[in-house]
């Protein structure tokens, strides 16, 4: 990438998805988010978003995003270049990247996490996330279900997370800033130990990344989510996520993150977690990473601490 551009060297944001931190943590089980560490919320038959509403919203978002896309000055794209994949990937942070997948390209992200909870352990995989680059700086994202194995002294059981899908639009960028928004939906109809999710969960996230220097960047993701708790009650939460990244050289990047939710269920207070890790570019199209996380307060994610690893591939 030309020297004149201060590259955004972060997942310029990998809170939560995408949905909220709980939902994104199904990839660890957010990000999301993320969302990566908790079960699906059960049904609330009194509050269901009809699938036809989703079908109407999605094309409207694509059209409006294209119409309102900011014209870019003659600057190199900060999400490309020799280290561009480190900027594009959502993982391993809970926050999503401010970059979108490039038009005509796709990104596959996968991982594994081992969590220590109050009553045992939890393992989650494959944490799959598929992202497809669309015209006009748009992206479609799909998170298939994850397998979540919870073990304790009485044995164990396997659970499955819900399907998450959404759209992301990059509004614009300058030499130091990237501005992005996304809308995500948690699909109904997934059966797990908590029950059946008959209603749609939704999230709206604003993502901003700022390049402090050529190698250091800060990110903020602020989201609003409407989801169900494990008792089948819908609740709304405001979800801030703060990230910092340091690009040591074109192949290595370190990151640290603090994120939270104002509510982790209906009538339940806030929760805060932190995590950090390292990313390595095997090639310009393949990345591997490792991370550790720790609960700070509340019950966000349902764990005390965790470790994980994963990879990303652009094709």
Describe this protein's structure:
The chain has 315 residues and is mainly beta. The protein has helices at 21-24, 51-67, 84-88; strands spanning 106-117, 120-125, 129-134, 138-143, 147-152, 155-160, 164-173, 177-186, 191-192, 195-196, 201-211, 216-228, 234-247, 252-261, 271-283, 286-297, 305-314. It has a 12-stranded antiparallel barrel with strand order 1-3-4-7-8-11-12-13-14-15-16-17. Strand 3 (129-134) and strand 4 (138-143) form a beta hairpin. Mean pLDDT is 78; it is low at 1-56 and 192-196. InterPro entries: FApF. Pfam families: Phenol_MetA_deg (PF13557).
- CATH architecture, by name, is Beta Barrel
User: How many strand elements?
Assistant: 17
What number is the mean pLDDT? 78
Distance between the termini: 20 Å
**Unreliable parts:** 1-56, 192-196
CATH topology: Porin
How many domains?
1
For the biggest β-sheet, the strand order reads 1-3-4-7-8-11-12-13-14-15-16-17
Beta strand % = over 45%
Given helix and strand content, the structural type is mainly beta
Percent of residues in helical segments?
under 10%
């Amino acid at each position: 990438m030309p020297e004149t551009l201060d590259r955004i060297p972060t997942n310029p944001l990998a809170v939560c998805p995408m949905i909220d931190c709980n939902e994104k943590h199904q990839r660890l089980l957010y990000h999301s988010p993320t969302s990566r560490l908790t079960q699906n919320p059960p049904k609330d038959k009194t509050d269901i978003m009809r699938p036809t509403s989703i079908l109407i919203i999605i094309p409207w978002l694509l059209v409006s995003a294209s119409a309102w896309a900011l014209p870019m000055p003659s600057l190199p794209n900060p999400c490309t270049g020799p280290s561009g994949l480190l900027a594009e990937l959502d993982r391993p942070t809970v926050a999503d990247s401010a970059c979108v997948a490039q038009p005509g390209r796709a990104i596959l992200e996968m991982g594994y996490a081992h969590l220590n909870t109050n009553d045992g352990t939890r393992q989650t995989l494959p944490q799959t996330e598929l992202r497809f680059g669309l015209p006009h700086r748009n992206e479609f994202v799909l998170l298939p279900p994850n397998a979540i194995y919870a073990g304790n002294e009485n044995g164990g059981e396997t659970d499955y997370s819900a399907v998450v899908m959404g759209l992301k639009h990059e509004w614009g960028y300058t030499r130091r800033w990237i501005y992005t928004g996304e809308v995500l939906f948690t699909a109904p109809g997934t059966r797990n130990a908590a029950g059946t999710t008959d209603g749609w969960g939704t999230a709206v996230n604003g993502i901003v990344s700022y390049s402090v220097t050529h190698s250091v960047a800060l990110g903020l993701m602020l989201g609003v989510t409407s989801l169900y708790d494990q008792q089948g009650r819908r609740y709304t939460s405001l979800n801030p996520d703060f990230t910092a990244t340091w690009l040591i050289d074109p192949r290595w990047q370190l990151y640290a993150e603090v994120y939270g939710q104002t509510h982790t269920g209906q009538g339940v207070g806030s929760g805060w977690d932190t995590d950090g890790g390292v990313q390595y570019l095997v090639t310009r199209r393949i990345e591997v990473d490792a991370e550790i996380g720790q609960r700070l307060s509340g019950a966000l994610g349902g764990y005390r601490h965790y470790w994980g690893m994963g990879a990303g591939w652009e094709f």
